[in-house]
Write a sequence for this structure.
């Protein structure tokens, strides 16, 4: 929308707030400024939409906040990169800030600016997101983790492991040792911990299309997730988005009770990464509340995860890949997954609540092929469908 035209005699004095809010979500910039000046009824919703999310690199947005600091009360989300001056961007801090989001820029990161922002907004922060793995040392990574301990209201955390610096020539073993040393140097949290309900341990883009990075994740970089070391309370975790067999084996036994959604996003699964596979297969992890399971992959889906879990109330399963690899390539493997799905409830021949299996890809296999690829699910009345993404 390039301009806003208002007809005064058509301005409603009453309207559905949800509908008006939805309309404003499609309006941007100066058009929202215009909406805020239409009438008393439009002012608050328009200002809220204008300043709800602030990019600290947007000089125009910051200038408008500086003109009238009362507008800070509308700010809920702040976004910037790792070098953004979050704490100096505002004349005073937004008192209702809920979300702090760090986007990636491809340079080596120190944690100073981010840690200052975490400390400044710690009393109200409920969501902290790092969109992509930052190029930083494990020492800085762990210091950021410890800084987040201050955020007692934190509920949603996206925190992928750090990436190598461009000029980092250390070996895999050296990187693993660095991670182990940094994590074990962390101060254990003894005071009340933030109770997370959402935890994502991969970059945001990997949730749709996990990428192969050239080296397997180090088991050592997930040691902070162990119950004795984790700075957060994960007992009430509801959603887990994960991309490592090592992290899965650490986390699932301790978060199984309340988990309702599990997404396993990995380019391809390697049997050697499942160090506890035989033990877990003999005594699978029961996820009594899990309703949605997602397997997102780049080359092939996991052969192993479905063997080590039991999900008696599972309702939907989604397999997603966004490559040009034909769905026909996976027919045999999907047939094996079909058999694994049938075993997800030890108390029954087939999970009684499972109603849908989705295939999400760039080409549509069609209903007939889906039924052939998942014959057991089809026999038990599960709707097997696909759609292009």
């Amino acid at each position: 929308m390039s301009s806003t035209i208002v007809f005064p005699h058509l301005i409603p004095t009453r309207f559905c707030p949800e509908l008006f809010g939805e309309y404003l979500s499609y309006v941007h910039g100066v058009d929202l400024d215009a909406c805020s000046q239409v009438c008393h009824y439009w002012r608050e919703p328009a200002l809220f939409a204008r300043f709800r999310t602030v990019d600290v690199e947007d000089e125009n947005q910051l200038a408008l906040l500086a003109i009238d600091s009362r507008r800070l009360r509308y700010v809920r989300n702040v976004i910037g990169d790792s070098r953004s001056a979050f704490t100096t961007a505002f004349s005073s801090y937004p008192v209702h800030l809920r979300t702090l989001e760090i986007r990636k820029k491809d340079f080596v990161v120190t944690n100073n600016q981010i840690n200052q922002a975490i400390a400044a907004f710690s009393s109200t922060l409920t969501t902290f997101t790092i969109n992509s793995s930052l190029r930083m040392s494990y020492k800085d990574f762990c210091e950021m983790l410890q800084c987040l301990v201050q955020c007692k209201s934190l509920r949603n955390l996206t925190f992928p492991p750090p990436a190598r610096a461009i000029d980092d020539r250390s070996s895999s073993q050296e990187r693993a040792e660095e991670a182990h040393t940094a994590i074990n140097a962390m101060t254990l949290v003894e005071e009340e911990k933030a109770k997370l309900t959402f935890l994502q341990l991969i970059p945001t883009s990997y949730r749709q299309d996990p990428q192969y990075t050239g080296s397997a994740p180090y088991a050592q970089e997930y040691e902070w997730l162990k119950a004795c070391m984790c700075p957060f309370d994960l007992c009430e975790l509801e959603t887990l988005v994960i991309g490592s067999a090592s992290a899965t084996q650490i986390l699932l036994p301790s978060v199984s009770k309340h988990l309702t959604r599990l997404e396993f996003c990995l380019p391809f699964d390697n049997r050697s990464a499942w160090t506890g596979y035989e033990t877990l297969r003999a005594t699978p992890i029961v996820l009594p509340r899990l309703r949605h399971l997602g397997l997102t992959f780049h080359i092939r889906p996991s052969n192993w995860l479905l063997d080590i879990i039991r999900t008696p109330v599972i309702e939907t399963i989604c397999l997603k890949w966004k490559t040009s690899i034909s769905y026909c390539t996976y027919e045999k493997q999907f047939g094996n997954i079909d058999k694994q799905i049938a075993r997800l409830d030890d108390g029954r021949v087939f999970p009684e609540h499972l109603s849908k299996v989705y295939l999400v890809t760039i080409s549509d296999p069609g209903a007939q092929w889906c039924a052939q690829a998942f014959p057991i699910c089809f026999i038990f009345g599960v709707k097997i469908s696909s759609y292009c993404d």
About this structure: The chain has twelve helices and 14 strands. The longest strand covers residues 356-361. The chain has a mean pLDDT of 85. Residues 268-389 form one domain.
